[in-house]
Amino acid sequence: MKTLDPARPPEPFFERLRAAGERLLVLDYDGTLAPFTARREDAVLYPGIAPLLAGIQQHATRIAFVTGRPAAELAARIPLQDVEIFGAHGQEHLAPCGRLTRAALRQSSRQWLDASAARVVDAGFEHALERKYGTVAIHWRGEQPDGRARLQELARAIATTLPADVCALAFDGGYEFRVSGHDKGTAVADLVTRHPQAIMAYLGDDLTDEDAFMAVPPTGLGVLVRDRLRDTRAHLWLRPPDELHAFLASWMAAVKP
Ligand SMILES: [Mg+2]
Fold it and tell me: Residue 60 — very low, low, confident or very high, per pLDDT cuts 50/70/90?
């Protein structure tokens, strides 16, 4: 565990957490709580994480997930009740009651995304394609070097036709085209607006989590969870799974009466 921002060491954070009337633990899933796998459907939580989260949830901590996956897909993978999920990088919101809401999507954006997805399929890479609401993602994790190079070239070619309201984003293991206006940062900002008094932390691993780190209020903590440190706006870095486990155990110790 390494403090990246000297102004936000973890000890005072846990003290604030202990004293807080409201707490918010916001989590990315893939690469943060669940190690990457060649097949995305195989990604499961690190051992010991689920009971820790369930325990934390019982002590006045609201848990929310912010993921690139469709919200409903993540809901089916999480062994927790009463959580809210921002899916498709903030374009979907699944309330604890099960109500799903989605950001508006222009027809021209939808058509461009459909056409871009068709280019991936036509190139013989349907298996590397992920369609989500307002999003086309191309995954090259698990590809051979030749396939990876062809997919990267295809992604670059698609990026040259990008409309003004669609953004292109590299992530760990692929590339994504997504309608602008919503990202993991807007998801965190939404939570902060609804819970302004909450002491919160956001845990994530990817470049797409940087928007979320920046949306964490000054009383909170952005936590980068990955094997290797990189340039980041996070305030704390920890290596999974042992330091992740230790961080959540510290949260549990702080909130348990
Ligand atoms: Mg991730």
Answer: confident
Same domain for 80 and 23:
yes
Contact 94, 87 (CB under 8 A): yes
157 and 194 both lie in a single domain: no
Mean pLDDT of 98-118: 95
142 and 15, same structural domain?
no
pLDDT at 171: 85
Residue 39 has pLDDT above 90, yes or no: no
Ligand 1 center from residue 137 Cα (angstroms): 14
Report how far ligand 1's centroid is from the alpha carbon of 102 (Å). 21
| 257 Cα to the center of ligand 1, angstroms | 32
Q: Are 100 and 92 in contact (CB under 8 A)?
A: yes
N-to-C CA span, the chain: 25
What is the CATH classification number for the domain harbouring 220? 3.40.50.1000
Rounded distance from Cα 222 to ligand 1 centre (Å): 14
Q: What is the DSSP letter of 228?
A: S
pLDDT at 89: 92
> Which of 123, 155, 179 is a domain's end point?
179
Number of domains observed in the structure of the chain:
2
- What's the longest Cα–Cα distance across the chain? 58
Residues 84, 31 share a domain: yes
Q: Please give the pLDDT value at position 41.
A: 86
CA distances from 3 to 8, 41, 137, 152 (A): 8, 33, 33, 34
Q: Edge-to-edge strand order for the sheet containing 174-179?
A: 129-132, 135-139, 174-179, 166-171
Domain hosting residue 78, numbered range: 2-103+182-255
Q: Which of 142, 158, 179 is the last residue of a domain?
A: 179
**What's the CA-to-centroid distance between 35 and ligand 1, angstroms?**
9
